[in-house]
């Protein structure tokens, strides 16, 4: 039985009278690439933010890395990595400086920092850019850098929020190679996206519509169930009647 | 504590790469201290005088000469009538009208009493007050002079009596710079510390890096500390540049103990920075942060006692002034730099600033959420 | 035209939805008026002073009583030890001290001459001068009482009339200045920042690519601030009339017309800044340092221009708010008509046109 790293039970978030996330229940297993799909406004970003501590749930329960999101957020933080939509690297710091900073925040020793940053730079092929400001990097490299920085402290789970927005298909492909190699190392990947073709790359996906999880399974099973030839069609079938868009 | 080192490294790198901030830190003190005191001169002089002389005697001429010789007044010209002179007041060419009635000299001798008419543009109350006072003084002096000249045989009629010996301490030449510069220094430090701190945090909110930080195990209080320290150091730097400029340009040497001065500044900066950080937690965009900061800064500066004395304010305004950190700073600046006040003298201000710093910063550190 | 209105509508939404900013943009003038109108004054009253009475005779008691009775002063410390003066100054408790020497009355009666020492804390020179003046006036009054000699010959009596502001209130001087300041702030700062923000976030490019003339895009941004500023003018005037009791002596219509002109000047300035700068931070700093500070310094309402070194006086001529301040003062406080202020209006118009032309030229250059 694979280890459960994320577990939610009737997790809900309400803003006034508006229910953004409506009693979702699901599990994510160690080492898998879990795709969290949904249209814009479906609630997937809100749900993810509750798991990483940027929002407090209204009701329901959730554990991440076996720690409770209500009371043990500190522990959760030590065990997860996060890559936000905006990549959140400091544009006015160099590549090396960003690595050192985030590594230091996560408590890496000076030796570890040196080793890791050397390794990372070589892996990403950023030797010539290491001392340049992040602002000067092309979008694709920023993206890869942001991902790698999220993994610096060897977290158990890494959360990616729409990581491939705005990059070309080749870069996207390269990025997913990075995700695969991280997954191979035993890191669980929780990724939200609205690119349906990326769903095919995941082990399992869930599709949120109007705050609820309408489907959760492997991409192949979903396609079979709904007699669809692509996840696009699966999504269309499920989200047709959605009341919330944008 | 290692973490603080990383935070500080990052902050300082960012500050030094930000050309705007660097320019501001160095240029602003110098600019403000050079330009402001030159411009902000409240001494009353060069009052434009329009004369309407119906007497045309050498007597009236002597009076007019005496008035213009005083240096306070600039003779704008002679006008045939009050109405003509009034037009000059309307078009701001004259500030004050002196009207000497016809047969002034003759009637003075015959009736022993003559009125002389003065009309002052009182839109600027201070100027009008002082202008009226000066001209009154000159006329009184003139009066005494001619009395002595024409009636030397009446000694007991000199209205001498009480002679007032006045001396001005701390600023014997009534140098306005000495008054303004320490106050301007106070404002300078306040603006730099407050504005840049607030903007800095909001920028992290806008770019999203603050979210990234929130997901890390970094405790929020360390994050704020990492913001406070660099700008605190910056505030000190600006203050020091300002002090040096004040010395080089105006020859102002602090009369009091430098330790007292810096000791107060250290506490004061904590209060202002706390305030700046607090404002940043209430703003979502740089625009908002800047406007809110500006709003409060403006109130603080205006009611700080630099331009008008706090003693003259109505009681409700005095209450606000008492809550205003800038007013304490301006007080202490003047007291220590000009009068050489010591620790004991500034104790009340010190305590109040300490209280403010504690309150503001604890509000900050207890604020778990950064987004408002 | 319809498209233009659509743009203007969008801009209004931006402004109205940012409640915090809106609150400050409307609240700022109100706060300023209240502060300037009520709190900021050079009026002297209840000034704490220290009295050293070494005479302790009827004359000194009488003078001290007169001082205590005056609304200008409040006797904080009454002592016979002159050594207390310096520490009291240092503590900032008092700003003026008088010392009446022993044998004061004796000297007055027998020698017809006596001295009183007045010591002022001249760290604030104006305050020192004013306080010294007031106390001299009180002593002079006492002297006159003593003499009660109305047969002193050859009396020249000045009859002083204060024009426009007989009560010497601070408000008539400040209110026009506040108007200039507020309009400058909102129009220059906000316009510049709002346009630069679109540049920064990249949405400006989208607008520029639309079939819409870029000039109209920028104008649409200026419109909400124009409206907001006119509302602020009205607010300031209402507050001035009903709360500060400073009425508008001249034509309100003329005032609004001139205000509109000045608003356009400031908006143009803001637009010019936004063309030349690329980040919000820089736009803000330029607006504040480059526009606001000179306005406060050189417009003449806080510091008299005629006291400044000559180069500064020349500099003040290119500051639009200096001219606007004169215009508002003239219309509102003096009640004059256009015939008096046509010159200033022309200058303002000229500055506006110049800015407008430079902006268009810069904009075209940017586009290439």
How would you characterize the overall build of this protein?
The complex is a heterotrimer of chains A (246), B (372) and C (368). With 246 residues, chain A is an alpha/beta fold. Chain A contains nine helices and ten strands. The mean pLDDT of chain A is 88. Chain B has 372 residues and is of the alpha/beta class. Chain B folds into two domains: 2-40 and 176-365, no CATH class; 47-158, abc type-2 transporter like domain (abc type-2 transporter like fold, 3-Layer(aba) Sandwich), CATH 3.40.1710.10. Helix content of chain B is 66%, strand content 10%. Chain B has helices spanning 2-17, 19-39, 58-69, 82-90, 104-111, 125-150, 176-207, 209-215, 220-250, 258-281, 286-302, 315-323, 325-339, 347-365, and strands at residues 47-53, 73-78, 96-100, 113-121, 161-169. In chain B, helix 1 crosses helix 9 and helix 2 packs antiparallel against helix 7. The radius of gyration of chain B is 28 Å and the shape is elongated. With 368 residues, chain C is an alpha/beta fold. Chain C has helices at residues 2-17, 19-39, 58-69, 85-91, 104-111, 125-147, 171-201, 203-209, 214-242, 252-276, 280-298, 310-316, 320-334, 338-367, and strands at 47-53, 73-79, 96-100, 113-121, 155-163. In chain C, strand 1, helix 3 (58-69) and strand 2 (73-79) form a beta-alpha-beta unit. Chains in contact: A-B, B-C. At the B-C interface, helix 2, strand 4, helix 6, strand 5 and helix 7 of B face helix 2, helix 4, strand 4, helix 6 and strand 5 of C.
Strand order of the largest sheet of chain C: 2-1-3-4
Number of DSSP helical runs of chain A: 9
- Shape of chain A from CA axes? globular
Query: How many β strands of chain C by DSSP?
Result: 5
Strand order of the largest sheet of chain A: 6-7-8-3-9-10
Number of structural domains of chain C: 2
Cα radius of gyration of chain C in angstroms: 28 Å
Brief summary of the model shown:
The complex is a heterotrimer of chains A (246), B (372) and C (368). Chain A is of the alpha/beta class and 246 residues long. Chain A is 37% helix and 26% strand.
């Amino acid at each position: 039985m694979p280890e459960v790293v994320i577990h939610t039970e009737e997790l809900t978030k309400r803003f006034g009278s508006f229910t953004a996330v409506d009693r979702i229940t699901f599990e994510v297993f160690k080492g898998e690439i879990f795709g969290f799909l949904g249209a814009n406004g479906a609630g997937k970003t809100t749900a993810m933010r509750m798991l990483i501590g940027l929002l407090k749930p209204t009701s329901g329960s959730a554990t991440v890395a076996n720690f409770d999101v209500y009371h043990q957020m500190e522990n959760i933080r030590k065990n997860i990595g996060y890559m936000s939509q905006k990549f959140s690297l400091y544009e006015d710091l160099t590549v090396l400086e960003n690595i050192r900073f985030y590594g230091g925040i996560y408590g890496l020793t000076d030796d570890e920092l040196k080793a890791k940053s050397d390794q990372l730079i070589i892996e990403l092929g950023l030797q010539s850019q290491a001392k340049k400001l992040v602002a000067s990097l092309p979008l694709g490299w920023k993206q890869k850098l942001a991902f790698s920085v999220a993994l610096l402290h060897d977290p158990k789970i890494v959360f990616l929020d729409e990581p491939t927005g705005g990059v070309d298909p080749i870069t996207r492909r390269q990025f997913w190679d990075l995700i695969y190699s991280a997954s191979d190392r035993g890191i669980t990947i929780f990724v939200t996206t609205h690119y349906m073709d990326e769903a095919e790359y995941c082990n399992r996906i869930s599709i949120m519509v109007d705050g609820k999880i309408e489907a959760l399974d492997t991409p192949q099973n979903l396609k079979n169930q709904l007699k669809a030839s692509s996840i696009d069609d699966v999504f269309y079938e499920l989200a047709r009647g959605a009341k919330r868009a944008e | 504590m290692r973490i603080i080192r990383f935070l500080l490294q990052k902050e300082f790198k960012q500050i030094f790469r930000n050309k705007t901030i660097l320019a501001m830190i160095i240029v602003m003190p110098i600019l403000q201290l050079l330009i402001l005191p030159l411009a902000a001169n409240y001494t009353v002089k060069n009052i434009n005088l329009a004369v309407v002389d119906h007497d045309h005697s050498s007597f009236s001429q002597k009076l007019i000469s005496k008035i213009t010789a005083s240096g306070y007044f600039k003779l704008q010209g002679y006008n045939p009538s009050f109405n003509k002179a009034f037009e000059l007041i309307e078009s701001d060419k004259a500030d004050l009208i002196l009207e000497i009635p016809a047969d002034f000299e003759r009637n003075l001798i015959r009736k022993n009493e003559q009125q002389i008419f003065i009309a002052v543009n009182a839109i600027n109350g201070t100027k009008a007050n002082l202008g009226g006072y000066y001209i009154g003084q000159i006329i009184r002096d003139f009066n005494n002079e001619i009395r002595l000249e024409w009636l030397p045989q009446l000694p007991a009629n000199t209205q001498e009596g009480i002679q007032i010996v006045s001396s001005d301490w701390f600023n014997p030449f009534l140098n306005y710079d000495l008054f303004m510069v320490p106050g301007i220094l106070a404002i300078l430090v306040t603006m730099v510390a407050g504005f840049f701190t607030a903007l800095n945090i909001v920028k992290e909110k806008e770019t999203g890096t603050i979210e990234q930080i929130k997901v890390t195990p970094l405790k929020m209080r360390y994050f704020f500390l990492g913001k406070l320290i660099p700008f605190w150091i910056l505030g000190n730097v600006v203050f020091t540049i300002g002090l040096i400029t004040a010395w080089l340009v105006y020859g102002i040497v602090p009369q009091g103990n430098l330790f007292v001065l810096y000791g107060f500044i250290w506490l004061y900066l904590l209060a202002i920075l706390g305030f700046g950080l607090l404002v940043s937690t209430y703003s979502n965009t740089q625009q908002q942060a800047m406007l809110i900061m500006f709003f409060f800064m403006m109130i603080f500066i205006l009611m700080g006692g630099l331009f008008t004395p706090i003693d003259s304010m109505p009681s409700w305004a005095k209450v606000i002034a008492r809550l205003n950190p800038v007013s304490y700073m301006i007080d202490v600046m003047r007291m220590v730099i000009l009068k050489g006040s010591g620790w004991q003298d500034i104790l009340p201000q010190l305590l109040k600033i300490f209280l403010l710093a504690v309150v503001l910063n604890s509000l900050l550190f207890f604020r778990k959420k950064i987004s408002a | 035209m319809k498209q233009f209105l659509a743009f203007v509508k969008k801009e209004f939404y931006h402004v109205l939805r940012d409640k915090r900013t809106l609150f400050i943009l409307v609240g700022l003038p109100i706060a300023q008026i209240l502060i300037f109108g009520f709190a900021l004054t050079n009026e002297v009253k209840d000034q704490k002073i220290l009295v050293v009475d070494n005479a302790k005779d009827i004359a000194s008691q009488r003078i001290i009583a007169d001082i205590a009775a005056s609304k200008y002063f409040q006797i904080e410390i009454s002592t016979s030890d002159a050594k207390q003066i310096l520490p009291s100054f240092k503590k900032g408790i008092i700003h003026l001290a008088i010392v009446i020497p022993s044998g004061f009355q004796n000297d007055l009666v027998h020698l017809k001459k006596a001295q009183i020492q007045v010591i002022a804390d001249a760290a604030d020179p104006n305050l020192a001068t004013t306080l010294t003046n007031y106390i001299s006036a009180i002593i002079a009054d006492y002297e006159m009482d003593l003499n009660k000699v109305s047969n002193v010959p050859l009396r020249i009596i000045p009859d002083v009339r204060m024009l426009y502001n007989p009560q010497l209130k601070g408000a008539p001087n400040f209110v026009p200045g506040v108007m200039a300041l507020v309009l400058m702030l909102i129009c220059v700062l906000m316009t510049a920042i709002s346009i630069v923000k679109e540049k920064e976030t990249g949405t400006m490019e989208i607008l520029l690519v639309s079939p819409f003339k870029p000039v109209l895009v920028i104008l649409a941004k200026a419109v909400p601030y124009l409206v907001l500023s006119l509302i602020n003018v009205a607010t300031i005037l209402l507050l001035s009339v009903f709360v500060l009791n400073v009425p508008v002596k001249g034509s309100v219509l003329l005032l609004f017309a001139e205000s509109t002109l000045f608003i356009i000047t400031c908006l143009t300035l803001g637009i010019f800044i936004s063309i030349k700068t690329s980040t919000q931070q820089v736009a803000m700093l330029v607006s504040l340092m480059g526009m606001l500070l000179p306005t406060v310094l050189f417009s003449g309402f806080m510091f008299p221009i005629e006291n400044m070194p000559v180069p500064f006086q020349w500099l003040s001529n290119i500051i639009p708010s200096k001219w606007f301040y004169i215009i508002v003062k003239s219309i509102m406080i003096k009640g004059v008509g256009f015939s008096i202020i046509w010159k200033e209006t022309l200058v303002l118009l000229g500055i506006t046109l110049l800015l407008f032309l430079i902006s268009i030229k810069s904009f075209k250059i940017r586009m290439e």
